[in-house]
Amino acid sequence: MKGKLGLKLNFIDRLILAIKEKDINLAFSNNITKDSKILVNRNIIKRAKTIMPYLIYDSEPYLVITDEGKMVWVIDAYTVTNKYPYSQMTTIEHDNTKEQINYIRNSVKVLIDAYDGTTKFYITDKADPIVMAYRNIYPNLFEDLDTVIPQDIAKHFVYPKFLYNIQASMLERYHNVSTDILYRSDDVWETAKFSTTTSSSKGIKQEPYYTMLKTVDEDNMKLGLILPYTQLDKQSLRAYLIGTYDNNNNAKLKLYKYPSDSNILGPMQLNTLLEQDETISAELETLNVPGTRIIKNMIVVPINNTILYVEPIYQLSLNEAKSIPVLKKVVVASSNKVAIDNTLEGAIKNLLSKSAVNIEVENTDTIEDLVNAIIKANTNLENSNTNNDWEMIGKDMKKLQELINKLEILMKEQEEKNKNSNTLTNTIDSNTITNMVDQIDV
Questions:
Q1: What pLDDT digit, counting tens, does each position of 368-403 carry?
Q2: CB-based burial of residue 442 (10 Å sphere; 0-12 exposed, 13-18 middle, 19+ buried)?
Q3: Do residues 40 and 7 make contact, with C-beta atoms less than 8 angstroms apart?
């Protein structure tokens, strides 16, 4: 079935096709001759599955235009198993089903000509034993191992989000494979959260997204997937994961980690600081018009050693049935500066000018940090009282209350952990004593 799946049609073929497709014109139209061809299976993913049903196909194929102007579909295909020894299981969803696996490789690229349906399977990972076994079973299905994917197609490859999501999830726990750390769960991460509205305090988990980025070890800008991490139940940025293709058209996944004692601004921290800043909050307040809703997004872009935050802010009309969000403001932040404007270009210009607003990053991830923040907030409140600045008194009181509430929650969590730890210790001691008693010879 490899190659062009076009059929030359005689009358019997045309009659059968007319019945199958429920279109009588296929049988009797004068425009169809014995030399006409029909492309029976036009859905590219179904087409690939029909040819090779034992692979998992990415649900997000993409179209590439070659140097000759041809359009070619690229589909990432995966081999999976749940029998790889000593590996962590995870659940994936594909073809409306869930499957438990502990091994996955993006070993095959399927290229389909968008005009005539020519379908070619290329093995891109010769170290994968599963795909090599398939090649031995179906020697005429795959292109020769020495056949190179044309450069004008390969240079457009993008890291597949399906595979990236699985890898990113595993790295939350297995970025540090030291035995004692894994056993005690001392270094667990989670996907960074961000607030989608001006009133949300909990936030939602960030989804991986494609963006142009330039890391410290790369000379040029590249299109890649990125996802930031924070320490579990904390807000400071801990690391970010980047998936790209290198100059040799090989998939590349790299994790960039910050030192454990660093205090890099996280998305939720930035949201809090923006709400507390007078200049930025005043700009955002102008968008709170009755009959509308504010929607925000957060994009983290690494540029060399610096993280650039871009927060587009949209206004959605609630009075229209099919309202489209309209971009109203863009907030950008880097290091300890933040700026806002109606466009991204204007916001970046403001960030690099005197219009930028200084922000102070507070680390409130530990009890000690929270106590220090509460002391500072109380000092600010006293200054506001002294100056009779009623507006600032209200803001300072609100911030102080938020910090106290957070401290209370953190202390309760710490007490619960200590309680569980003591219970475990008591259980171990009791078991030890029981074993010792059993071994005594009376």
A1: 777 877 887 788 788 878 888 787 788 778 778 877
A2: exposed
A3: yes
Cβ atoms of residues 323 and 317 within 8 Å: yes
What DSSP character marks residue 359?
A: -
User: What Cα–Cα distance (Å) separates residue 306 from each residue in 199, 219, 242, 253, 335?
Assistant: 28, 15, 15, 19, 7
Q: Provide φ and ψ at 232, rounded to 5°.
A: -55, 130
With contact defined as beta carbons under 8 Å apart, do 230 and 213 qualify?
A: no
| Residues in CB range of 218: below 8 A, 6 or more apart | none
Taking only the tens place, the pLDDT of each residue in 213-249 is: 888 888 888 999 999 999 888 888 999 999 999 888 8
> Which residues contact residue 439 at a Cβ distance below 8 angstroms, ignoring those fewer than 6 apart?
none
How many Å separate Cα 84 from the centre of its chain? 26
Cβ-in-10-Å burial (0-12, 13-18, 19+) of 192 comes to: buried
Angle between helices 278-285 and 267-276 (to 10 degrees): 80
Spatial contact of 206 and 193, defined as CB atoms under 8 Å apart: yes
pLDDT of residue 5: 43
Task: Put residue 185 in one of left, alpha, beta given phi > 0 → left and psi -120 to 50 → alpha.
Answer: left
Report strand pairing: 6-8 vs 37-39: antiparallel
What amino acid is encoded at 47 in this protein?
A: R
C-beta separation of 78 from 93 below 8 A: no
Q: How far is CA 288 from CA 127, 194, 279, 295, 313, in A?
A: 56, 20, 15, 11, 12
CB 103 within 8 A of CB 85: no
Phi/psi at 9 (5° precision): -110, 120
∠216-217-220 over CA atoms, to 5°?
85
Q: What single-letter DSSP state applies at residue 149?
A: P
Cα–chain center distance at 178 = 25
At position 140, the amino acid (one-letter code) is N
- 199 CB neighbour count, 10 Å cutoff: 8
* Closest to 193 in 3D by CA, of 180, 207, 182, 183: 207
The answer to whether the beta carbons of residues 243 and 164 sit under 8 Å apart is yes
